[in-house]
Amino acid sequence: MIDPITLEIFRSRLAAINDEAATTLRLVSGSPVANEAHDMNTALMTPAGEAFAIGVYISIHAMSLASTVQTIVREYADNPGISEGDIWMSNDPYVGACHQMDVVVVAPIFFDGELVAWTGGTCHQIDLGGPVEGQVQIGAKSIYGEQPLVTPIKFVEKGVVRKDLEWLFLRHSRLQNLAALDLKAMIAACNVATERLRELIGRYGIETYKDAVSSIIETTEKQFRARVRELPDGTFRHRGYIDADGAVYPVVVSMTKEDDHLTFDFSESAPQAPALVNCCRPALEGATISAILPYLCYDIPWCPAGIARAVEIVSKPGTVVHAEWPAGVSKATTTGSYMATISSSVCMSKLLAASETYRDHVMATWMGGLFVEELFGTDQRGNYFGGTILDAMAGGSGARSYKDGIDTGGFLDSPSSIIANIEDYEFNYPVLYMYRRQQADTGGAGKFRGGATVSMMYMAHDVGMIPTKIMHAIGVEQPGSAGIAGGLPSCTNQFVLKRDSNIRALLGRGIIPQELSEVKGTLEVATGITPTYQGKNDVYHCIGMGGGGYGDPLTRDPELVMRDVVNGLVTPKWAAKIYGVVVRANPWRLDLAATQKQREAVYRERQKNAEDGKSAAKDRGRTAKSKVSGAKRQSSRVKHAVAAPKKKLAIQVKTKQTKTKARVKKA
Amino acid sequence: MNYSIAVDSGGTFADCIVVDEQGHVTAAKAPSTPDDYSRGVLDSVERAAKQLTMTLDDLLSQATLFAHGTTVATNALLTRSGSRTGLITTLGHEDALIIGRTVQKVAGLTEGEITYLARLDKADPIVPRPLIKGVTERVDYKGAVIVPLNEKDARRAIRELLEEGCGAIAVSLLWSFLYPAHERRIRELIHEQAPDVFVSLSHELAPVIKEYERTATTAINAYLGQVAARYLQSLIERLKAHGLKPEPVIMQSSGGVVPVEQAQARAVSLLSSGPAGGVMGAVELGKALGYRDLITTDVGGTSFDVGLVVEGEPQFSLSPVFAKYHTVLPSIDIPSIGAGGGSIAWIEPGAGLLKVGPRSAGSVPGPVCYDQGGTEPTVTDANVVLNRLNPDFFLGGSKKLHADKARAAIEEKIAQPLGISVQEAALGIIDILDAKMADLVRKVSIGRGYDPRDFVLLAFGGAGPMHVGAYARDVGVREIIIPAHASEFSAWGIVGSDLMNLRQVSEPMIAPFDPARLNEIYHGLEQEARATLAREGISNGNVSFLRYIDMRYRGQIHEVRVPVTTDELGEQELAKIHQTFEDTYNRKYGQGAAYRKAGIEARTYQVRGIGKIPKPAWVKHEAGPADASPALKETRQVYFKGGWRATPVYAREQMRTGNCVNGPALVEAVDTTVLVPPDMSLAIDGYGNMVMQGV
């Protein structure tokens, strides 16, 4: 048995080795995806493919490495065999990749001829082929209409890259150089981890190493089970929604905590969609672990192999979170697996909220839907460009039981993500921002408020138009960030264009519009997945998703509400309507007497609503209603969600516009 | 006799170094005086004077140089005691400082802290949101004016900030480094209404593309300006009252000194001036010893700082973090972790594993053996238990350590729960700390593309020499140097630093570059730097320039700083710069990482004008006999892996150049103790440094 001192040295050394591999991946890649969005990760795994050390990047990725290794060990051990100096790759979500864009590279590590470990790196790509530029294969009817798949192949043999296989993979990409560079980065990461791990084993001996790894897994399991045991037994449920393409798919999880064990049951989730929004079983497993880690393992090593032993995940094949071949999954990481993480995280919060000891670890939902925008076209210098605007990563974090969530705090699965500076976007892409700010009334209301999200407005600049602009998100029709303990959900994701506007005339008159309403033009409201363009005089505006609130907003300290008003995070109107707090302007001050009356009025209205038999769900739905898109409550449509057959794109967009416009008019 | 004096005033001690015109060095220490740091500064000089059998006034009146590194700015930032500060920015971008690119919530945190999501928060804002005002104006990426400055708007914003009681105003507009006129006009408008308000303009302070970091730098500067000015004025008054004649110079985090006036205008540059002194000391020492590649390691009570010197030059951080704000200040890169003599050892609940740090007992209450109320065992306690630290000779015997208390704490809190002996527990604490420190050295060197085995490692700070043998061997360096004044090494580095006038500006351009435009930029920057240095009394002959260009592959993130070695660029020199960029990129980011097909972008241009301050050469002693036995104090039982060993203990003060001892051994100096591990040897070189090598 290894002593506790050597074990601690091993634990930090193994983490350092894995971290060095991740750093190598980021350095060699150099891409904003790896270095700012941090859409990558690395892991160290046992010979059987259990991850015992993962990086602090997007954690679901680390799990995809483990699933891929498990498949290789199961299917390919004899043919073509696993040997020293090999490196494997795959982007097959049915094997392990989260979706096709996340290329997985894994390598076996040998010591004295014995397979002692696996290492691996994975990194999101901008384009890997398929009919549509970028990740979202709009129009796909199944996985056959999405990016080409590479099942696990041994593309490096005895340390040498097989050019034929490398090219077989790169051939499909519209951005081959980028994909090739990232492949190199993942190989370099594997090589670094292999070299360091062998040095470590050389120094301490193979037996000590094996002892250390199994002890790390066992110790983590022991710590994790002890933590779970301290929490109350019970079943905690959440129902999250994937709204896409005119349909809504519930992701339903029922999490049962019994003694020292957690069971996540997803089997009541919606039947799978034909393509895009599903995720496969390996991604579901990763998604679930990704929710457990930040909520329960903040002081326990992130060693999924140990944690997984106390966790059971139940799912039904053929559902949106457990896709069956040949369902497509090209947008899985911002739909199926994203919502699986979010829904599981709500269960975690409810579990923690039920414990007096751990209540201060509750976080209502962090940014329950990531909004992504992909641009392709000719830049201001006449060169082809393709890129992603990821400002919406600065969504709000969930409120805590004792304080507010973090405004523009980012997202749960990747706390170190960075949004780009506007000056960098404007230098690289043909755009000019009117503003980028924290948006008022976007954080879920509560005794403690969810973090506010970001909003922005920009126009095309120095080009005739941006010909391809693909916007996609869930949480457009309904708010993805749930509140907890009486807290309200956040706003929805919102993105609109004002076509053929007077923006240039405004700027010419010295006016920089700070609200969409100041700009004249034809309003076009985008939904779920919208492929379109941005013309020379079109102004684009978007609001990301805030965090969920904690506790009843009527119990919020009026001083905090006034502070929010002063800081531009809550409008006076919202303060009165939701918080029942009356804030007077010039200078800002609280009217406590009026607040008392207003709170009573809001309370009476609630009682009346309850008596009228209106459901609490409706109340929440209304809270989340957004100014622009006028989100419509989905509960009736949700019950029997069936993916609507895909219509022709142009028509579809138009239909939705008309619908939305009508709604706006009514409002 | 003429004297050069430097004082590095830190959180716990003010360290003073005095060099006479023959190159003899005197070192002294005095406790810091946080209520008015200038008192501690003078105390340390007075103690040095005493060693020279002089009065404070005698010494100061004969000083030809007084150089100073101060923690005042850092302290004011951490305790949020700067000026009430307003920020004026481009309409629509008021929240940039608060959004903090969303990464602000984890900036500067360790991985353990990052994964504790429920406890993350952004910086406590140095400028509250109501004091951030947007004004109508807009410039684009070409520097073209899209919307002119609306002066009515600006006047209103200024009036509101003044009514709110702002004593300082930062101005940071989008693309101001390409078109500074709007910021300049706003300053005029501020001074029309309030001539005494402290104003920082982003294009003057940090004219670098990256609006968040530029704005943060400008705001912090405005926030600290008046604090720094008040402190420096009071210090100067005291120094002059005691006879100092020359104007003091102040250490910057860029590794050079500047006159007081500049230090006040650029207070943000004071933020890591002390640690920068240590790295500049390494550069200086490397010059004397003929080493160009060094790793510096500074171990104090709470933190372990690592710096790199490559080919004789300190490495700069492109975006140093202060109090959760990313900045764009030219600052020597000195990554740090919570590990030092005060690091607390504890048992991880549930896992039963021994952990060390990152929490520290600090100097109050301090380690258990200080007997000042500390109850949690620390690394210092472990060193006492293993007889590595002499309880009767800590800080030269001025502080008595209580070995029995240290032993009892480790026994109760660590040894018993783990079921091991108290010695094994103490050794475990030290081993874990040493491994952590080795991990950071590896991360700093290998993580930046350098092999630590090609470097000489410098260990300073009070606790460095005790641990360096272990962590240096772990990373594989071949030679360790413990400088003569290890405990005051930052002050030693400051006294050797030259005047530096650093100028930079962004103007992103895509290759092929126009050499004429680049020459224009560099000549402009040089002219400014030369004029400033001339005003500071540096003759033209003593001025030299270093020029750099920051480049990257298009669409990529990593920037590489390439030296520009000519003062007139042509096609040929540009080709060479391209090549150096690609070579450096490949070395730093991995062979094959270069992404040539993407094209190359130049972003920021930097000129460092160095004004040489003449200094005496360091005194070099002739080597005497290798035998160190005259310095032998005692033979003590010291615990190593495997058991107690009889270990000779030498008095550093008695050791002479050429003396050599084999491990295991201890060398006790007044302010530090060196542990020579069993398989290493230590020798005293001609400058009084201790050089340790494997045998």
CATH class of the largest domain in chain B: Alpha Beta
* CATH fold type of the largest domain in chain B: Rossmann fold
Second-tier CATH architecture of the largest domain in chain B? 3-Layer(aba) Sandwich
Low-pLDDT segments, ≥5 res of chain B? none
Q: Looking at the structure, what is the overall shape of chain A?
A: globular
The largest β sheet of chain A comes out as:
7 strands, antiparallel
Low-confidence stretches of chain A: 621-667
Mean pLDDT of chain B: 93
Outline of this structure?
Chain A is an alpha+beta fold and about 675 residues long.
SSE order and pairing:
The complex is a heterodimer of chains A (667) and B (695).
Chain A: H1 4-29, H2 32-35, E1 40-45, E2 51-54, H3 59-75, H4 77-81, E3 87-90, E4 102-111, E5 114-124, E6 153-157, E7 160-161, H5 163-170, H6 176-204, H7 206-230, E8 234-244, E9 247-258, E10 261-265, H8 281-296, H9 304-308, E11 311-314, H10 336-353, E12 372-378, E13 384-389, H11 422-428, E14 431-438, E15 454-460, E16 465-472, E17 494-499, H12 503-508, E18 522-525, E19 529-535, E20 539-543, H13 558-566, H14 572-578, E21 583-584, E22 589-590, H15 592-611, H16 616-624, H17 635-638, H18 649-666
Parallel strand pairs in A: 10-11
Antiparallel strand pairs in A: 1-2, 1-5, 3-4, 3-6, 4-5, 6-7, 8-9, 9-10, 12-13, 12-16, 14-15, 15-20, 16-19, 17-18, 17-20, 21-22
Helix pairs in contact in A: 1-6, 1-7, 3-8, 6-7, 8-10
Chain B: E1 3-9, E2 13-20, E3 25-31, H1 37-51, H2 56-61, E4 63-70, H3 72-78, E5 85-90, H4 96-99, H5 111-114, E6 132-135, E7 138-139, E8 145-147, H6 151-163, E9 168-172, H7 181-193, E10 198-201, H8 202-205, H9 211-241, E11 249-251, E12 257-259, H10 260-265, H11 273-289, E13 294-299, E14 304-310, E15 313-314, E16 316-317, E17 321-322, E18 325-326, E19 331-332, E20 336-337, E21 343-347, E22 354-360, H12 379-385, H13 403-418, H14 422-446, E23 456-460, H15 464-475, E24 479-482, H16 489-495, E25 499-510, H17 515-535, E26 543-553, E27 560-564, H18 571-589, E28 600-611, E29 632-640, E30 643-651, E31 660-662, E32 665-668, E33 673-676, E34 680-684, E35 690-694
Parallel strand pairs in B: 1-4, 4-11, 5-6, 5-9, 9-10, 13-23, 23-24, 30-32
Antiparallel strand pairs in B: 1-2, 2-3, 7-8, 11-12, 13-14, 14-15, 14-20, 16-19, 17-18, 21-22, 24-35, 25-28, 26-27, 26-28, 29-30, 31-34, 32-33, 34-35
